[in-house]
Amino acid sequence: MFVVKHGSYFSKSTVTVYLSLLLLVGCQVVPVFKPTAVLPTRSSPLDTPATTTCTPSLTPAFSLTETPIPLPTISPTTLPTAALLTPVVKKTDRIAFLSFRDGNWGLYVMDADGSNVLRLTDNKTEVSRFSWSPDGTRIAFAAQRYGQNSVIYAVDADGRNLIQLTDNAEENRNPSWSPDGRRIAFTFSSAGEIHVMDVDGSNVAKLTDFGENGYAPQWSPDGSRIAFFSHWRSCQSEIYVVDVAGGDPIQLTTSRWTLPGTPTPVGVWSAEPNWSPDGKRITFMSSRDDRILRIYSVSADGGEPARITWGSCRYPAWSPNGDRIAFSCTGEGGHDRGTYVVDPDGYNYLKLTDIASYGYIDWSPDGRRITFESLDSYDSEGDIYVIDVDDNNVLRLTDNGRNKDPAWSP
């Protein structure tokens, strides 16, 4: 199992502002209205100033005036081989997460009971999305230092062997480790084109060339395709897949709800694709029907999406064996507030807890537990929890500062 998370510039706050733009403006100035549901206020990869066009104005998340103290940088042409970059022995039952406890979004790991917390980055490094290697020994992450462009790094899960994988003048974000552990997908430049590279930073290959922002690349379980979301071809954010071997992306979703008097759908979007373990279906969250944020599932080869939830819900996560989908609901539109699991066909809802989340949910490798965050909004004081799926025992892992995006070690 492999996982990808995010925050910071290409963060959920960015998705929030940009997708709120789509909800209120679309590709043209439209009358102001109060939506039934909006994208949750939380970090996102589409954070842009208000504009009446579909192209976001991309700026660094922060800017400091201190003299930069660069992280250790190794040219991709001289990096050690992948075999030399994984000397640590995997420690099972670990959770990586982002925390603002020390004044910036840093990358941390801890045991699944909340003990042995270890910070992997310093307080000058603002971390966004990260991804575990499939063997659980290393973590790839995107980070900015002193307001400079975002760079992809990799580090051992014990904090050793930090190396820089990208070295260019563009923004490099959203790393996603391949299932075989040999490559990392990421978004390149402000246009967000999908690229892949070897885990030592070499052999960079461009997969998309559509000139519009792509986000959240997710490898298929067999490593042959990558799903992502983008507003390519329209002003709406849609779900796409692209073959790693090459070829044009395939659009899997089409927004269809339209405001009266507008020629194209506005105020709707689809985002955060998540592959089923067998690679046959992709879940995502969308306001495609009536602007209420719900969970849907679509064939990885295309077709009509099936609605999984009826209320306002977000961030679906497949269980390791594919028999259930976890998600969180806000309490609007039909589901009580809380965290749930449901069968892939939308039947047999089970509410696990009243605690809801505006962020990601992740399963333990054995499928018995779920970790999630309790953030109600991007600026709230959130904490990370673990819950047993079968007996609903809840364990709070953190209690100091803003914590988000928990991801279980494979």
Given helix and strand content, the structural type is: mainly beta
Write the CATH homologous superfamily: TolB, C-terminal domain
Q: What is the highest CATH level, the class?
A: Mainly Beta
Roughly how many Å apart are the termini? 5 Å
Number of helices: 1
Q: Low-confidence runs (pLDDT<50, min 5 residues)?
A: 1-89
Task: Evaluate the radius of gyration.
Answer: 20 Å
Mean pLDDT: 78
For the report, how would you describe the main beta sheet? 4 strands, antiparallel
Which range does the strand content fall in? Answer: 25-35%
Structural domains: how many: 1
SSE arrangement, N to C: HEEEEEEEEEEEEEEEEEEEEEEEEEEEEE
Q: What fold name goes in the CATH topology slot?
A: Neuraminidase
Question: In one word, what is the shape?
Answer: globular
CATH architecture: 6 Propeller
Give the strand line-up of the largest sheet.
4-3-2-29
Total DSSP E strands = 29
Helix content: under 10%
What would you note in describing this structure?
- This protein is mostly beta strands and about 400 residues long.
- The chain has a single domain (about 10-60, about 90-410), classed as Neuraminidase (6 Propeller).
- Helix content is about 5%, strand content about 35%.
- It has one helix at about 10-25; strands at about 45, 95-100, 105-110, 120, 125-130, 140-145, 150-155, 165, 170-175, 185-190, 195-200, 205, 215-220, 225-230, 240-245, 250, 270-275, 280-285, 295-300, 305, 315-320, 325-330, 340, 350-355, 360-365, 370-375, 385-390, 395, 405-410.
- The strands form 7 sheets. Strands 4-3-2-29 form a 4-stranded antiparallel β-sheet, with no helix packed on it.
- Strand 21 and strand 22 (about 325-330) form a beta hairpin.
- The protein is globular.
- Residues about 1-90 have low confidence and may be disordered.
